[in-house]
Design a protein that fits this description.
This protein is α/β, with parallel strands linked by helices. It folds into 2 domains: 282 residues, TIM Barrel (Alpha-Beta Barrel); 126 residues, Urease, subunit C, domain 1, CATH 2.30.40.10. Helix content is 32%, strand content 21%. A 9-stranded mixed beta sheet has the order 3-2-1-4-13-14-15-17-16.
């Protein structure tokens, strides 16, 4: 019988497999037929506020104009929807998002307890080991990226470096190579005194001080308040000088009010996944206290075994939990947790998180069902997603919009789908080098279900 320490060490290795400190620069295949400039008309969420009617002009992969006046130099596409920056999911384990939700049989005191449990190994860990043996690299990641993409997400955290070391992925991996640099780091567990990762943590802290690392993602204090192991972890975290202005604390569920003020004063940020916390521990982070203390708070859907099925769903859980904590959040502030604030937490606010002239055209169009554009986003689910563009490339859109806006020739990675009753079109291959084309969603699904038939569906 393996010890808890051995199980946790194996868990860390499984997640960090293939993630070096520095990654080779990935390649990106240009379009054979680049999309012509176009403008989208609808309600627009801009850095200054929401417009009930506006135009977003996209040219050469960037937002070339934001205007209330109808442009005359490009084709205008009427969306009747809400146009906003692509959503950023700052906490996940994408390779595990191929599974259906796991029903934890009990509540746990901390993350180390469920990771050592038999039900978890039977329903999650063992199937993952099977897939690692039987399917090619990147297969699980690509399936998970499609799941994120169809929910309006254009940037994710937590993917294995093995899947992205030589090419840019379908969805931006914010803690790996992004915009020509690798300035983020991630660790699953705070290393113990005897861990081989102590030198790595010390190097990360040194690199943060030098300005070479701008975001450091660390799972910390994931357990119930009052849990002794989590309390000891927090003491070690402070002793290791890991509380920095670049530290993104993932979870922090066991942190009390005084603890949150301590890390806020150190400049730490919080990445919050309330759904997963509630299902595993019966309680979640005091996010309202963190906000009152001045901590930037971003959201992450965590992973499907215990988290939300989409970031849009996670937003709804966060809203309810904040209200229960006596911190009623405005719709605009909730949207910021997955756009502007999330970009700042990721250290990428110069590139993503807002629609601004000169920025990469990472954007989403949602069906409009509410007069307030911000409230419309908060009420949305993935079935409302009409279009997703990453760097000006339309990767997922209504079938009747795709050809006019994508500029893509037909290919084996472009396929028609029925997504929650809507005809949609998906391109999984736009980011791949010509020498290494990526498979279509149908091919990926076939590889996964052949190895493990109980793969969780995307459109459900």
């Amino acid at each position: 019988m393996a010890t808890v320490e051995e199980v946790n060490d194996a868990f860390e290795q499984a997640y960090s497999r293939g993630i070096p400190e520095e990654l080779p620069v990935p390649t990106r295949r240009p379009r054979a037929l680049p999309p012509a400039p176009f403008a989208l008309h609808g309600a627009v969420i801009t850095p200054e506020g929401a417009w009930s009617s506006g135009y977003v002009v996209v040219a050469d992969g960037v937002v070339s104009a934001l205007t209330r006046r109808r442009p005359t130099s490009v084709t205008v596409h009427e969306t009747d929807g809400v146009i906003l920056p692509g959503l950023l999911d700052l906490h996940g384990h994408p390779e595990f998002n191929v599974f259906a939700a796991w029903e934890p049989p009990q509540l746990y005191a901390n993350r180390y307890r469920w990771r050592a449990s038999d039900p978890y190994h039977l329903l999650v860990r063992d199937p993952q080991n099977t897939l690692l043996e039987l399917v090619p690299p990147r297969t699980q990641t690509r399936y998970a990226e499609v799941r994120a993409l169809v929910g309006g997400v254009t940037g994710i955290q937590g993917a294995s470096g093995a899947s992205t070391a030589t090419m840019e992925p379908l969805v931006r991996n914010v803690d790996l190579w992004a915009f020509g640099a690798h300035r983020a780091r991630a660790m699953i567990d705070l290393p113990s005194a005897s861990s081989r990762d102590v030198p790595r943590l010390k190097k990360i802290v040194t690199d943060i001080a030098a300005g070479d690392v701008t975001a450091f993602y660390l799972h910390l204090c994931e357990g119930v308040r009052g849990d002794k192991r989590s309390a000891g972890e927090f003491e070690r975290f402070l002793a290791l000088n890991a509380a920095t202005s670049a530290t993104n604390i993932i979870h922090g569920t066991s942190l009390g009010e005084a603890d949150l003020h301590t890390v806020a004063e150190a400049g730490c940020r919080l990445v919050w996944s309330p759904q997963s916390n509630l299902r595993l521990y019966g309680e979640t982070t005091l996010a309202g206290v963190a906000l009152d203390a001045g901590m930037p708070v971003a959201l992450g859907a965590d992973w499907l075994p215990s988290g939300s099925s989409s970031l849009l769903a996670e937003m709804k859980v966060a809203r309810r939990e904040l209200a229960k904590q006596g911190h009623v959040v405005a719709a605009a502030d909730l949207v910021a947790m997955v756009t502007t604030v999330a970009a700042r937490v990721a250290g990428l606010d110069g590139h993503v998180g807002s629609l601004a002239v000169g920025r990469p055209a990472d954007l989403v169009v949602l069906e409009r069902h509410h007069v307030d554009p911000y409230e419309n986003v908060c009420l949305a689910d993935p079935s409302w997603v009409e279009l997703v563009s990453i760097g000006g490339d339309v990767t997922y859109a209504r079938a009747d919009w795709f050809a006019a806006l994508s500029g893509a020739a037909e290919g084996t990675t472009i396929e028609n789908l029925i997504a929650w009753g809507k005809p949609m079109r998906l391109d999984t291959g736009f980011a791949s080098p010509a020498a290494a084309p990526t498979p279509s969603l149908s091919s990926v699904r076939g590889l996964l279900t052949s190895a493990y038939p109980a793969i969780g569906p995307i459109f459900a």
